[in-house]
Amino acid sequence: MHVDEKTVRRIAHLARIKITDDEAAGLESELSAILDWVEQLSEVDTESVEPMTRVVPISLKQREDIVKDGEKPNEIVANAPMSGDDFFVVPKVVE
Amino acid sequence: MTDLTKLTLSEARDGLVAKDFSATELTQAHLKAIEAGNDDLNIYVLPTPDVALAQAKASDDRISKGTAGVLEGVPLGIKDLFCTRGVRTTACSKILDDFKPTYESTVTQNLWDAGAVMLGKLNNDEFAMGSSNENSAFGPVVNPWRRKGSQDKLVPGGSSGGSAAAVAAGLCLAATATDTGGSIRQPASLTGTVGVKPTYGRCSRYGIVAFASSLDQAGPITKTVRDGALMLKVIAGHDPKDSTSVDVAVPDYEAGLQEGVKGLRVGVPKEYRIDGMAEEVASLWEQGIAWLKDAGAIIHEISLPHTKYALPAYYIIAPAEASSNLARYDGVRYGLRVPGKDLIDTYEETRAAGFGAEVKRRVLIGTYVLSAGYYDAYYLKAQKVRTLIKGDFDAAWNTVDVVLTPTTPTPAFAFGEKSGDPVQMYLEDIFTVTVNMAGLPGLSVPAGLSGEGTPLGLQLIGKPFDEATLLRAGQTIENAAGRFPIPERWWV
Predict the structure, then answer these.
(1) What local confidence, expressed as pLDDT, does residue A35 receive?
(2) Whole-number Å distance between alpha carbons of B368 and B361
(3) What is the CATH architecture of A5-41?
(4) Alpha-carbon span B155 to B413, nearest angstrom
(5) What angle do the packed helices B310-325 and B381-396 form, to 10 degrees?
(6) pLDDT at residue B1 above 80?
(7) What are the structural domains, with CATH classification, of chain B?
(8) Which of B240, B344, B386 has its CB closest to that of A52?
């Protein structure tokens, strides 16, 4: 599977990672090599196989739907690069 | 006085109980060892001597009052993937910057509740993505082992390279680690240490920086099998904060260790005899089979037919999950922010500056395989292959109790030897990754030295939640093989 530079740039934008021209060229060959290598999975007949959803066959535990934590906005914004009045501050989104 | 950094975890525990030395003395000895070795080995990304000495003092108080916990006063290293309250946690990525969690991971909380002491945070591959520890934002860890007659730097394996190197070098008594595709067992093999990857769900993932959530599992790296048993008992157990942690009883792993393997059925999978396996690895495997047979085990050749597809399926599933998990690093709520011209541009600049090359590669692969039109061809296909891989093991458990394989295809390699070719590096995990795909427990135990004089491990794979049998078989190998302390502490 060859991934061209245009696709690399589209994927990088979807992943919200800015890439340089040099990086784009390197990633084109690296991603293509990885996708070529995983291509061997097409040899496996999976026609009647269910996809794995969980490795341990247990049912999830239930619990009461009650609030047990919270009321600590200071802690929540403690690591924010920018905050004000216990809100996260981001660049203007709507003009 | 004996060198306290050469003790095993269980010897140290016994010595503390017998008051042969204090927790403070034991901790100081390790802090001194870190000071002497960390410049050369780059094992700790953040030593925490103040925390350690305060905890050690509290331990000494509890010991004198007779209220000691099961790991009272033993100094440990913590992989920098575990959130530690108030102590910088980075996953060895620039994107987490100066992140100081306001909460504690359940695994580390369990250790502190048992009285353990934290020496500091250990180096690892960024977001646990790597097999050589060369992908850390803090630079690579140096393997304390060197080839005979050589001073060349070798990698310690990864991603828990700091954890494995710390234990091997005596810079802690034992360490926490995590394993998504082999990140506990592979570095354990390359450093002569014991690594236990528990069954998926055995330990809580709460507070561990997520890489691939359906594969990640925490476990110990230790000097001996007994130490692994001791530490696993403390960190395992159900946690309401992780819905995938399983509520099954945690046995006393230490109790049955010396019961031997008489009558135990050991499977040897023929698909693991791959081209390119080093001759010394193949002969060590034969030696391991002979040791177990001599101890009364029954050896069966078995077939795990989908083995060769585990690694390519892993390199679809793990990057797909990683691309989703790592979407949270957007420069808004924590970590690095690189301002851009608008919000989208801020995301893109932040993630460009914050992620290293391997992390970007995997996020992009993951984004690609999950993107519109490709989901069925890649992700769904890989999850079907995963069902087949688990089916191989389910069938094997009808005839065997454990499976014995090598841990790695080669001994420790030099810096830069495999980092130029991603696929070549991925092949490091060829024997370990099946275990994560099937959610099984696995253990690597040191079994011998390569021709170059560097350590090699054997891997045992067990039934779900049967870590006890794994540890017992591992103890049998350790009894036969002996232990592999580092011949010379050249960094002191």
Answers:
(1) 93
(2) 11
(3) Orthogonal Bundle (1.10)
(4) 6
(5) 130
(6) no
(7) 4-262 (3.90.1300.10)
(8) B386
Tell which of B364, B436, B467 to mutate to test the A interface (max A CBs under 10 Å).
B364
Residues of B classed as catalytic: 79, 159, 183
Rounded Cα gap, residues B313 and B193, in angstroms: 28
ipTM: 0.96
The CA dihedral of B31, B22, B487, B194, to the nearest 10 degrees, is -90
Q: Amino acid identity, residue A66?
A: I
* Domain-wise residue ranges, chain A: 5-41
The SS3 assignment for B113 reads helix
Q: Which of residues 67-86 of A touch B (CB under 8 A)?
A: 72, 75-82
Tell me, what's the pLDDT at B421?
Answer: 83
- The pLDDT tens digits for B296-338 are 999 999 999 999 999 999 999 999 999 999 999 999 999 999 9
Least CA distance to A28: which residue of chain B?
Answer: B361
Residue B75: C-alpha distances to residues B36, B59, B160 (Å): 17, 11, 18
- In a mutagenesis test of the B interface, which of A3, A27, A55 is the best target, namely the one with the most B β-carbons within 10 Å? A55
pLDDT in tens, B243-273: 999 999 999 999 999 999 999 999 999 999 9
CB A53 within 8 A of CB B200: no
